[in-house]
Amino acid sequence: MHIHFAISAAALLHAVSAEPIPQVSIRALPNAPSGGYAPAAVPCPASKPTVRAAAGLSQNETAWLQLRRKATVDPMIDFMKRATIPNFDAEAYIRSVANNFSALPNIAIAASGGGYRALMNGGGFVAAADSRTPGSTGKGGIGGLLQSSTYLAGLSGGGWMVGSVMLNNFSSIVQLRDGFEGSSVYQFSSSIFKGPKQRGLSILNTASYWDDIIDQVNEKRKAGYNASLTDFWGRALSYQLINAPNGGPSYTFSSIALTDEFAQGNTPFPILVADGRLREDKVVTLNATVYEFNPFEMGSFDPTVRGFVPTEYIGSNFSNGAISRDGQCVRGFDSASFAMGTSSSLFNIFILQNVSAIDAVPGFIADTIVSFLTDLDDDHNDVAQWTPNPFYQWNPSTNPTASTTELSLVDGGLDLQNIPLTPLLSPHRAVDVIFAVDSSADTPQNWPNATALRATYERSLLPIANGTLFPPVPDANTFINLGLNSRPTFFGCSPSNFTLLPGQILPPLIVYVPNAPYTAMSNVSTFTSTYSDDQRNDIIRNGYDVATQGNGTFDAEWPACVACAILSRSMYRAGRPAPAACEACFSRYCWNGTIDSEDKGPYLPTFKIRNGTTVASSAGRRVVASGWSFASVVGAVAVATLVG
Ligand SMILES: *[C@@H]1O[C@H](CO)[C@@H](O)[C@H](O)[C@H]1NC(C)=O
Ligand SMILES: *[C@@H]1O[C@H](CO)[C@@H](O)[C@H](O)[C@H]1NC(C)=O
Ligand SMILES: *[C@@H]1O[C@H](CO)[C@@H](O)[C@H](O)[C@H]1NC(C)=O
Ligand SMILES: *[C@@H]1O[C@H](CO)[C@@H](O)[C@H](O)[C@H]1NC(C)=O
Ligand SMILES: *[C@@H]1O[C@H](CO)[C@@H](O)[C@H](O)[C@H]1NC(C)=O
Ligand SMILES: *[C@@H]1O[C@H](CO)[C@@H](O)[C@H](O)[C@H]1NC(C)=O
Ligand SMILES: *[C@@H]1O[C@H](CO)[C@@H](O)[C@H](O)[C@H]1NC(C)=O
Ligand SMILES: *[C@@H]1O[C@H](CO)[C@@H](O)[C@H](O)[C@H]1NC(C)=O
Ligand SMILES: *[C@@H]1O[C@H](CO)[C@@H](O)[C@H](O)[C@H]1NC(C)=O
Ligand SMILES: *[C@@H]1O[C@H](CO)[C@@H](O)[C@H](O)[C@H]1NC(C)=O
Ligand SMILES: *[C@@H]1O[C@H](CO)[C@@H](O)[C@H](O)[C@H]1NC(C)=O
Ligand SMILES: CC(=O)N[C@H]1CO[C@H](CO)[C@@H](O)[C@@H]1O
């Protein structure tokens, strides 16, 4: 241990002074006041930060939306022009509502959890939706959807994708995939447990990688804060997600708000999701409070906590929403890596396991990590400690953790809501359509069966949803038998199917986009941590093909149907009937209430497209045959590496 700290001091000096800065440094801001990972006390602004009641959106989000909604108009018009809904002038429609933000379509994208599979499959969707991706605005493409979107939410592995895009100056997935000079972003061929092959321009070995991480977390401890495994996990993740030396220890999540691209409304509004966990609870249920992190605020609209704290000032001692008169303000606690690590804390359990299993990692590293954890026991090593609890003494009659100075947060998918829908369903955000990209591993072969959607529907019936509606979705076998999990499916198409009580609003239309094998067997295990560049590129491309149905291979009208989904709620509000071509889309893509719950055996889908040749696309019931040999060509993508 003593030897270790001697090494660390030198390494720390090196990190501060001698690190080569990559030439291309596009990213959020390294604005933690300590200059490193540690939070630090700073003078409070003239009006001290407070927790606010979640009775609406923050002033900052409201003001930002004025810019963003306006900025989505031209991309939406371009999208409509390319999508060409037959016999309907969608461009004229968008122009007619362009100045009325309650009428203009309000679009969100939500990327599920599922480790690297979710990062890559969700990244493939975002690449397809991004007009900057070469080819995305060609035939069958949906490029421009990202530029038309107001919100971009991510959870766990989906949060890594959203975080990496937003923290690197709204880089495109293609840019992140192809990398930056001297940077380790998206380099998954070297596992997170071993560390990147190079740091800046120099070769980095595993021992010094972990040494750096331990030093970073130790700075936070020395500043008086507890460390949890999530601190280590988040720091390690950042070497792969943030294009800055040492994974940018001082990058904060709130700094996204200070970047020009976001501040001018040129990007969607990023949201990460995590669940609250009570000390005494072993399992996280649908009654858990769903917390969100956005660049302005962290908190929850749920009727339990029902409050938001400025993200920038998390770490300050709030009590009943206020900092005491002589209390100081703290900044830098909202490390971008800690936020991304919290949303994905499911993976914490693999740190110690893998760190001690990998030969290259010196034994003392695992011991050192354990020695830093004040609170490690079998039930709580998946917890991220957001201590001091910003919601201490806040709403004590309903807030389950109002009486504790510790706020324990866990992976946002642990309540089974693996798609980050909750923040997007808030009536205050009035979202019209959510593209729900599902990379969950529900079936034994790691394909989704919409457990995440069912969880959100079931939660909508509980008191914690406070009447927020969600479209009904059928059981897992129906998804499989009707093929609803192997192609995009719309839920909540008919407004007349909802009975609205006073105060309730129509839920958004849900465009469910499940991971399915178009051109790669993208059902890799959630816990596989290493991917060759080819495997990575294949899974991103498959996600792209999922999003575009193979550039329209399965339905040349798919872009028009996406346009119809975008317009649906807006036209309903305006009392305008949907164009005939949209009715045709809805009859193809909307779940119409049919149920087929019979268990017909395992779901083993084969390639929908192989080598550019379309294969019949009914729900994959066929036994896996030649598909697997193609899998070996594209890389051992289909081989699930089960850990544990
Ligand atoms: C961020 O991206 C924008 C748009 O590509 C570019 O104009 C700007 O220079 C970039 N900012 C930084 C700091 O690299
Ligand atoms: C804006 O759109 C909403 C919803 O369609 C409508 O109720 C409202 O009257 C419109 N406002 C104006 C000023 O046109
Ligand atoms: C669809 O287009 C993209 C972008 O040009 C390309 O990368 C992808 O391979 C295409 N997919 C198919 C199935 O042709
Ligand atoms: C660290 O965690 C312990 C156990 O939860 C708690 O009692 C203590 O107050 C925490 N310390 C700080 C500085 O947050
Ligand atoms: C969730 O809370 C409701 C009451 O609000 C209760 O009826 C239900 O049993 C709880 N469910 C779980 C799984 O704790
Ligand atoms: C519940 O929803 C109603 C609107 O239907 C709203 O007025 C009320 O403030 C909400 N309550 C809580 C605790 O969020
Ligand atoms: C917050 O409260 C803790 C416990 O009372 C104290 O140790 C710490 O110094 C306080 N932090 C600030 C910034 O006031
Ligand atoms: C659906 O997924 C859940 C896990 O999310 C699993 O327990 C269940 O067995 C799956 N059912 C089918 C029919 O695939
Ligand atoms: C509803 O969908 C099922 C298959 O998903 C189809 O067989 C049936 O014809 C549809 N019913 C109507 C009324 O469109
Ligand atoms: C919506 O209502 C219609 C008419 O009652 C019914 O046929 C249909 O099944 C419902 N759709 C869903 C998805 O429940
Ligand atoms: C794909 O097509 C190429 C060229 O026709 C052929 O050489 C290759 O074997 C095919 N691969 C598979 C997996 O069918
Ligand atoms: C968290 C955050 O960014 N808060 C800002 C909201 O806007 C006010 C000005 O209206 C700023 O002072 C806050 O810093």
TrEMBL record:
GO process annotations (BP)? glycerophospholipid catabolic process
Query: What EC numbers are recorded for this enzyme?
Result: 3.1.1.5
A single GO CC term, please? cytosol
Q: Which SUPFAM superfamilies match?
A: FabD/lysophospholipase-like
Signal peptide range equals: 1-18
Keywords for this protein: Glycoprotein, Hydrolase, Lipid degradation, Lipid metabolism, Signal
Q: Which family does it belong to?
A: Belongs to the lysophospholipase family.
| Record protein name field | Lysophospholipase
Native source species: Immersiella caudata
Q: What is the lineage of its organism?
A: Eukaryota, Fungi, Dikarya, Ascomycota, Pezizomycotina
